[in-house]
Amino acid sequence: MSNLSVVELPVLNQPDEAVAPCCPPLNERPLSAEEAERTAKMFKALGDPVRLRLFSLVASHEGGEACVCDISDVGVSQPTVSHHLKKLKDAGLLSSERRGTWVYYRVEPSVLAAMGQLLTTAAR
């Protein structure tokens, strides 16, 4: 039997951690120009059906991360897929990492949580 040591690593994005919202709930106070600009960019990125579909493919993929090779079949050409993924990245909704020849995309959970908080708090 080998003598292996166990090292505990910290868990990131624990459910009990507070998420810094992008802006206040809509019914709390009017958004500043900067908050409105940042929030509109995120919602605008999700306003396109292909981008929304790509985003949902990444978000629903096991582990919230997907290789571009697994999500490219959305009825548009590969250059168009790349364009839409770049828009989602530019809006801060996805991050990416190159691994060899493939790019892997993952959802930015803190941004999603903040957007959800913005809307659900306002809906109450």
Automatic annotation (TrEMBL):
What InterPro entries has UniProt attached to this entry?
A: ArsR-like_HTH (IPR011991), HTH_ArsR_DNA-bd_dom (IPR001845), HTH_MetalResp_TranReg (IPR051081), WH-like_DNA-bd_sf (IPR036388), WH_DNA-bd_sf (IPR036390)
**Domain of life, per the record?**
Bacteria
Its keywords, alphabetically, are: DNA-binding, Transcription, Transcription regulation
* Keyword Transcription regulation in annotation: yes
| HTH arsR-type domain mapped to chain residues | 31-124
Alphabetized Gene3D superfamilies for the sequence: Winged helix-like DNA-binding domain superfamily/Winged helix DNA-binding domain
* The protein, known as: Helix-turn-helix transcriptional regulator
A single GO molecular function term of this UniProt record: DNA binding
PROSITE patterns named among the record's database cross-references = HTH_ARSR_2
Source species: Streptomyces beijiangensis
